[in-house]
Every structure is written in C-alpha cells, then in structure tokens.
Design a protein that fits this description.
Layout lengths: L2 E7 L6 H12 L5 E5 L8 H4 L5 E12 L9 H5 L5 E4 L3 E4 L9 H5 L5 E16 H4 L1 E8 L6 H15 L5 E8 L3 H9 L2 E6 L3 H15 L6 E9 L6 H11 L2 E6 L2 H9 L3 H4 L4 H18 L2
Parallel strand pairs: 1-8, 1-9, 2-7, 2-8, 9-10, 10-11
Antiparallel strand pairs: 3-6, 4-5, 6-7
C-alpha cells in the first residue's frame, strides 16, 4: 500500500521544501520512495537533485486565435473574459493580451460567430528523475511557465501524472505550495498524511490557523501533524504556537534553528546526508521515525 505524505505550510519560507527533501531521503533508505514537487510556480527541489530528468511531458493550454474574417466586433468575448485579457479596438479588431489569459475558453463558448479558433501554447512541463541521491529515490517535478496563470490546473495535472505511477512506490512525499488555495486543497486531498511546517512567529501562527481551517473542511479522514521549524529564533512566540496546537489536539515536533541549514541550502545539500550530526538533522531523523510509527499504527 502506497503512503502519500504532503508537506505543506501556510506561508512561504517556513522550510517545507527542506523538510520534504530530507524526509524523502530518509524514507528512501529503507523503502521505494517518490519525491514530488507540486509547488508548480516555484519548484525548488530541483536545486537538490544535481541530475538531469529522464523524461519530460509538455503540458499545453488553450489560447484564443481570433479570426478577423469571422469576427463581427460584437464584443461578447471582451465582456465575458474573466481575466480581462481581450481588448476591443472599436471598428478594427479584438486584441489578446496573452500575459493575462488563463486559457479558460469562455471567449470561444460565448462567440456567436465561431470567430474564436483554438490554438495551444506550452503552459508548463512535468519532469521525471530516476535514482537521485545515489539511487535512493525518484522524483517528479511539475513546473508552470511564468507566462501562464493556471496554477491549480497544473497542480492537478502533476498529481494525475503521479497517480499513474504511485503504485510502484511505498512512499510518495509531496512538496506542496504555500498558501491555502484550491491547489493546496487538492494536494492535501490527494494525500493520506499532512505535515504542516510552520515557524514560531506571529505570521507563521496566523497562516497555520488558516491551514488548519482548510484541513477541518476536508471530507475524508486524514492525519495532520505539525513541525515547528527554526525553534529558538529571537523574538519567537513558541508558547502561543504550542497553545494553539494543544487546543487543536494536533501532534507536533520542533526543529531547532541551525545555521547548518542555511549552509546546506547554499550548497544544495541534503542536511541529514551531509550534516548528519547537527541538531536539526538529529531532530529530523527523530521526527521521521516517529512519523512512520504513527503512519504504520493505522
């Protein structure tokens, strides 16, 4: 049975990619593991892989192509475009501003003269890496091109790609995007276990509360755990975060602030591999062991 673990966090910068990579590395030492980067707007796991993809799947999306011969300049496409990506030049033509277009296709649906023709552009790609970290695990990275805007769609396409091959693995670790939008909900819903990474700051606590509300809205029962990263920061509000977790009934762990984490990031290193005796690496190993005990105890 494949166990799917989503590593997420309400805000950016909490260290979720760092945790996802290190957790996947530890799991890969004893079981067949797939590391997935679903943070399609800013996939960072590639920084740690230091290898080339073995395959690449191009993802395309709709772009309207306006036929000047058929267009009667009725303006319906302009009026109904939810992204305001179409501009009417009276008496002349309709102009597409591609940087605003989300590829929804509403313009094609509402045009009464069949003047919107379909064209496709590359919206992003899904890359597959085999045997990374000395053969310990495989990786899938979804990435949206900067000129496209359909983040949630790209996340779903990445998850569907993973779904086709996940039965080949014991564990799937997903590096989820930051925030609490529909894409994050999709990743959480796809997973069996949710690991929320936060930091002991006012903003970290606020975003953790938002993420917990999203978790409470989920229909299927899932386990949620919290990791408080960077414990020991000056000015931290660790006590307030701890109080919220206690009231919510969530199990949690903490990782101490450690300058070696910054050094590992700069070098693109896996902390538990290259700095195994540091305080943060020791904490992550312990968290990994206890997390597995919880999962296996189902």
């Amino acid at each position: 049975m494949t166990r799917v673990i989503a590593v997420t966090g309400g805000k950016g910068g909490t260290g979720k990619t760092f945790l996802a990579v290190n957790l996947a590395y530890l799991l890969g030492s004893n079981a067949k593991t797939l590391l997935v980067d679903a943070d399609v707007d800013n996939p960072c796991t590639r920084t740690f892989l230091n290898t080339r993809p073995v395959s690449r799947v191009s993802i395309s999306e709709f772009r309207p192509k306006i036929s000047s011969r058929k267009c009667k300049l009725c303006g319906l496409c302009v009026q109904n475009c939810p992204e305001h990506a179409l501009l009417m030049i009276p008496g002349r033509n309709v102009v597409l501003m591609p940087q605003l277009c989300a590829g929804c296709g509403v313009c094609k649906i509402v045009c009464p003269f069949d003047a919107i023709e379909e064209s496709r552009v590359e919206a992003g790609a899904i890359e597959h890496y085999d045997g990374v970290f000395d053969g310990r695990l495989d990786s899938v990275i979804g990435e949206l091109k900067p000129t496209t805007r359909r983040t949630a769609v790209m996340i779903l396409k990445t998850l569907n790609h993973v779904k086709k091959k996940m039965n080949n693995y014991d564990y799937v670790v997903i590096d989820a995007p930051a925030g609490t939008g529909s894409g994050i909900y999709a990743v959480m819903n796809f997973s069996e276990v949710i690991v929320a990474v936060t930091e002991p700051t006012r903003l970290g606590l606020m975003d953790l509360k938002k993420l917990y509300k999203l978790y409470e809205r989920m229909e299927n029962e899932k386990k949620m755990f919290v990791i408080i990263n960077k414990h020991g920061l000056r000015g931290e509000i660790f006590g307030e975060v701890e109080e919220f977790l206690r009231k919510s009934g969530l199990e949690w762990w903490s990782i101490p602030y450690d300058k070696n984490v910054v050094e590992a990031y700069v070098k693109g290193s896996v902390l538990v591999k290259d700095y195994p005796e540091t305080p943060s690496a020791v904490s992550i190993k312990k968290i990994s062991e206890e997390l597995l005990e919880n999962i296996r105890g189902d």
